[in-house]
Amino acid sequence: MQTTKPTYTTLAEIYDAVMKDVDYDIWADFIDEVIQVHHPDPVTILELACGTASLSLSLEKLGCYDITATDKSEAMTQKAIEKARKQQASIALKQIDFLDISLDQSFDIIVSIFDSINYLQNREEILQMFNQVKKVMDANSLFIFDFTTPKNSIQAIDYLDNEEDTTENGYHFFRKSRYDANQQIHYNTFEINKLADDGATILESFTEEHRQRVYTFKQMQDIVDETDFRMVAAYNEFDLDKATNDSLRITMVLRCPDIQS
Fold first, then answer.
1. pLDDT digits (tens, 9 = 90+) for 89-98
2. What distance in Å separates the CA atoms of residue 104 and residue 258, rounded to the nearest whole number?
3. CATH of domain 2-148+215-255
4. CB 52 within 8 A of CB 114
5. Can you spell out the DSSP letters for 120-181?
6. Is pLDDT above 80 for 15?
7. pTM for the model
């Protein structure tokens, strides 16, 4: 019998296997480059929706940041804590929903990558996130986040749909991926089986459906325009080229200069 759990519960057990082809060191180098271009003297970083903290752990290797990594999911946060402990990392890890940020300090950099913002289904939720992020910023802080576009979802189906693998910790997963262009919703459904030591007998089965709203460049710009934030830059993929309507992934850099210190 299959069990449906909240997203990022059972997926936490296989998340690093699902993301095994992502080079977080390269991604961290890109984020570091963006930071150095736009902030004169950054020290503190807050990562939102950190997953198992792979980006924060890569950023820590650069040796110049004081990092706090957060995620809404208890299961993902625990995995992140385990990874940080094994790597003897000094990043702080907290379970925090980015729609309700309760931290009594500001950060030089707030970052959220790998289209975490695409999990917000509408303009109102994104505005709520922006308001929460503003609480932990000062006038010089940068908010750096990325999102994927419809063009990305159309292409991604080719390699995400029917993906399957068996992880080192004894799970087998199968992913179905589809994109509803009319609603701009990308669905990823994971069927996850916990295997016995023989590698074949299924002990438990789980299903997780992940639903992401996909935004065009203009749609996201329009939402930003409703806020106190000012767009400092918008980059294409993982370089400092300007984003366009043809970009698959866009990294936005925002500042909120009206914040009172």
1. 999 999 999 9
2. 19
3. 3.40.50.150
4. no
5. S-SHHHHHHHHHHHHTT--TT-EEEEEEE-HHHHHHHHHHHTTEEEE-TTSEEEEEEEEEET
6. yes
7. 0.95
